[in-house]
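To: structure subgroup
Subject: Chain for Friday's discussion

All,

I'm putting the inputs and outputs inline so they're searchable in the archive.
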Amino acid sequence: MSIEKGSEIVIAGTGIAAAATALRLVSLGFLPRLISIQRAIMPGVEAIPEAAFPLIRELGLDRAVALAGGKIVEGFENAWIRSDPVLLPGRWLHIERSVFASAAIQEAVARGVEISMVRRLPSVPADCFAAVDATGRSAAWSRPIHRQGNQVADLFEIPAAAAERGRIERTPDRWMYRIGSTLGVVSTRSRPSHGPPGARYLGRRPAFPQWCEDPVRGRRIAVGDAAFAYDPLAGHGIRFALASAFAAASVIQTWSEKSDTAPASRFYRDFVNQARIRHLEFLDKLELDQPPAPPQPLPEKVRFSGRRGTAELSIESRIVTSDAVLFADQTAVRWLGGVDLLEFEHLARKPVTSAALLGHLHSLGVSGARARSIMSWCLRRGVLEAIAINTNTP
């Protein structure tokens, strides 16, 4: 793809967000350059939620997943409220984070991406067409940053548990998560926590939410943790790294084709802000000891009740103004887990059984647990509404 004045696209960082952005840009015809200061990624097993599986497939990272010991596991145990544990449905990909990042970078190199190794990261190149900050929590090109809290996670390697599912649980002064052979102990202690007997200490990493003040400024755009870093309790760090890479690539594609960069930049700013708002609301509920709601049975019949409007969306790797479902909090959604929510307007304009909608989602390749999760989300957000069986609603 030809870019104005032959300027290049530069990506700072060599983690998962950097690799995903590079791979996505290559698929769009660009050939970005990676800048690396060879900062090691702390090892540890992560659990990637099912919603991110299509992004991994689209990037062509099957080999990277295999090299990182990827394993799909059903369910996740949430014992934040120990007296009221919840089994979260769905599938998670358990994967070794550092190996996955390294393998993804090698995949990018195999597809022609050049890496420049430097001792010290330079300032944003003045002559590049676009600069992508994928430097993680250091957010080297995206200051100032804000953070909430000061908790850290001490990571340990432990013998793999007999139970395959990941699990989180809380004690009075800390909380812990176990995913495969990785145990994370999260607290505000100044000294490292003690792991169980026989555990090998891997290191300490930040575990507080953090975000940059402006995820896109001019043609500098932040992805992954440089834009917004999650508390690990949510388990969405890698998912956001992948999703932000796709969104950023669509923004850059749009910049290359249109002189007016404002709509695409506004789309990305809203994309990051919505992720931050949702996550902080999630943490606020936990502080009030509100456990995750257990899965509720779907109503027998539902009807589309969303409000249609227009918003800036990423469609076919470009930012365009198109139809979407609008919410009272000024957010807009068109796709959820790869499902076009406006299809529900057509399928459920009149009351329809939940079984029929589940069957439609299954025909699209959506797993049973994921399909129920999507419909439950639509009911909570008002995209769908329950219809009483004895209603006379036409």
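Points worth raising on Friday:
The chain has two domains: 4-73+81-145+208-274, 301-387.
Residues 4-73+81-145+208-274 form a domain with the FAD/NAD(P)-binding domain fold (CATH 3.50.50.60).

D.
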